[in-house]
Amino acid sequence: MTPAKMCRPVPLRLDRIGIDPCVLVGKVLTRISRSQKHPCMQLHFADDTSYQILVDGYDPVHRGVPKALEMDPILESLLDAADGQAKLDRTIDHCALVTLTDKAFEAKQREHRWDQNHTGVAFRFSEDQVWHCVWATLSDHENGMCIFRSYDDVYLDQLHRSPHKRRSRAPSSPTQRR
After folding, report:
1. For residues 166 and 169, what is the distance between their CA atoms, to the nearest angstrom?
2. CA distance 60 to 54
């Protein structure tokens, strides 16, 4: 199987969103940052490009059931140790969307469990050959207990920065206006 064919699993939704993760192959990752307010992770590269791992359907205005990004323990500990922003110098040698299957549940009146298929973003660094994966969870809690847990798809999109407008400095006194 060619690397291009490995990048896209069978779609879980009819209309595909985001970009092909294969565009990250060969890029040098310099920094990873995780939002404290939203389920979002930013990947910053040496070529001054940035990408985000986002939750499909997440709307910051209408958040619904609380969503969070989860990841493998190595990546989680790296971000936790660096207070959500880790500096790196690692080359991505593989990156793909992967289909994951986890047990979801609802435990309000009677516990109900089911297999939940969802999409994650997986990548590997050439320096250590360890796969890292990021996926999304939805969970609801009552009285400190999780009563609902499900999963959602994540996708990769490029972060386009708007050009900064230079502000002209306002004169500090009327005599400097000449």
Report:
1. 9
2. 12
